[in-house]
Amino acid sequence: MIEVEHVSRRFGPLLAVNDVSLTVERGTITVLVGTSGSGKSTLLRIINRLIEPTSGTIRIDGRDTAGLSGEELRRGIGYAIQGHGLFPHWTVARNIATVPTLLGWDRARIGRRVVELLELFELDPASYAGKFPHQLSGGQQQRVGVARALAAEPAVLLMDEPFGALDPIIRAKAQEDLLALQRRLGITVVLVTHDMEEAIHLGDRIAVMDGGEVLQYATPAEILAHPVPGFVEKLVGGAD
Ligand code: ADP
Ligand code: MG
């Protein structure tokens, strides 16, 4: 469903993403894992063109994303980031409504969608719709962030370290919730983490990145059984 072909991105002299090619199957979770600075966030943002690649192409459902409008990209691809991605001075309802509002949905439809999403994420609409982000726990903020990313029913969900700010117990729950949600909605997820254990737990496939390159792209079982020598082997050793 997502085809990344020979994608590179330079920032001045730095090659942040170096000739990456990978294919993401529909309805699966692909995890980009690697240490800080390895190019994960840059690659993720290239997929929804928040960052333009210096070279290479990205196709979604066979369509080159270079030819898609901002509106088409927002409708098709949800984007959720760690912790404080919410607008602090906007209510939960208004945060969730961000993309549908940009897309010009009518108010009644937006209202219905907000209620539906709050219920999906087990936040009682009557008490949570009017709250502000600072009135929520970290786990609740994270759920609202994902609800916002899903508001316009995108086929693809991009998540950048979505659980990074959560304490371990809430984090485990958030991971299980994501797996259940992904199975239920059948969406295609690309998730960034620096945590190999999280990658192995969540990923149908894992792309291990270092220095802007994908060193190995395989299923968790393949990576555990046959890590490529060097960096991947060391990372897998650390996760055991
Ligand atoms: P990760 O998400 O794996 O931590 P990033 O994709 O954020 O890595 O960054 C990859 C490299 O690109 C890092 O060395 C980072 O400093 C650099 N980088 C990222 N964004 C920019 C930018 N806008 N300008 C210059 N350098 C950047
Ligand atoms: Mg990052």
UniProtKB/TrEMBL annotation:
Q: Which residues form the ABC transporter domain?
A: 2-236
Q: Name one GO molecular function term.
A: ATP binding
- Which key words are in the record? ATP-binding, Nucleotide-binding, Transport
Q: Give the top-rank taxon of the lineage listed in the UniProt record for this protein.
A: Bacteria
Q: Which family does this protein fall into?
A: Belongs to the ABC transporter superfamily.
**Annotated protein name in UniProt:** Osmoprotectant transport system ATP-binding protein
Q: Which organism is it from?
A: Labrys monachus
Name the lineage. Answer: Bacteria, Pseudomonadati, Pseudomonadota, Alphaproteobacteria, Hyphomicrobiales
| Segment of the intact protein contained | 1 to 240 of 312
